[in-house]
Amino acid sequence: MVIVLYHLTDVYSHFITLVANIFLRQIYVLNVLH
Q1: Rounded to 5°, angle at Cα 14 from 6 and 7
Q2: What is the 3-state secondary structure (H, E, C) of the chain?
Q3: CA angle 30, 24, 34 (to 5 degrees)
Q4: Coil, strand or helix: which one is 22?
Q5: Above 80 in pLDDT, residue 19?
């Protein structure tokens, strides 16, 4: 149970990192275009 919970947290953190990277990249592109 604890291992499964830890695995879910790890996946969630990876997802957050991925979303943050995409978000920052779009902000960078918008700033460059403007």
Answers
A1: 15
A2: CHHHHHHHHHHHHHHHHHHHHHHHHHHHHHHHHC
A3: 15
A4: helix
A5: yes
Q: What is the pTM of this model?
A: 0.59
Q: How confident is the model at residue 1 (pLDDT cuts 50, 70, 90)?
A: low
Amino acid at 31: N
Which residue, chain included where needed, has tokens 């991925």?
18
Cα angle vertex 28, ends 18, 21, to 5°? 5
Q: How many CA atoms lie within 13 A of 18 on its CB side?
A: 6
